[in-house]
Amino acid sequence: MIPSESLQIAFIQYISRLFKEGDFSATYKFAFLNALADICIESGLEEQLVIPVRHVTEKMIELYWAQARPFSGKDKFLSQNTGIQAAMISRIIAVQDTGVSLGAFKRDKAGFNKFVTAVNSFVVTGPLWRLQILSDTSEEFLYKKHNGNQSIQLNSHIQQ
Predict the structure, then answer these.
(1) What residues does each domain of the chain span?
(2) Is 53 strand, coil or helix?
(3) Residue 104: what are its φ and ψ, rounded to 5°?
(4) Buried b (16+ CB within 10 A) or exposed e, 27-48
(5) Is 73 left (phi over 0), alpha (psi -120 to 50) or beta?
(6) Nearest to 29 by CA among 116, 133, 103
(7) Is the pTM of this model over 0.85?
(8) In the 3-class helix/strand/coil scheme, how is 67-96 assigned residue by residue?
(9) Of the spans 46-50, 80-84, 130-134, which averages the highest pLDDT?
(10) Are β-strands 143-146 and 50-52 bridged in parallel, bridged antiparallel, or unpaired?
(11) Phi then psi dihedrals of residue 147, to 5 deg
């Protein structure tokens, strides 16, 4: 079903506000939004409006995996924050330094699960709830808490 014109405009206006009024000192929020969009497209979400935060975290790890590799010389890495390196990127770089590929790492169920659990705590304390803060005001336009910090529930107008 194609959303109404008014819903499409409201969504575009919200995203525009998010980029203008959101507090962005790191790219986590961009990656979170991208991961959320990927999940919605890949799964269809015809009936399901609830997404486990852990699923978003896994998608964010996939998005950052290639970006966390060194570039333009030996010690040039993605600089996501002003100041110290972002925790998620540092953790991904540490795993990459062992020589493992993302595919091989994901096949190590116990190791990958432990890694996702650690990174998930950054997602919960960072972009999960900060993404929807515009001009110092929380606006649950996209989603709201569901089952504590374990999952989010997309608002019905987002599913359309």
Answers:
(1) 5-159
(2) helix
(3) -65, -40
(4) bbbbbbbebbeebbeeeeeeee
(5) left
(6) 133
(7) no
(8) HCCCCCCCCCCCCCCCCCCCHHHHHHHHHH
(9) 130-134
(10) unpaired
(11) 60, 55
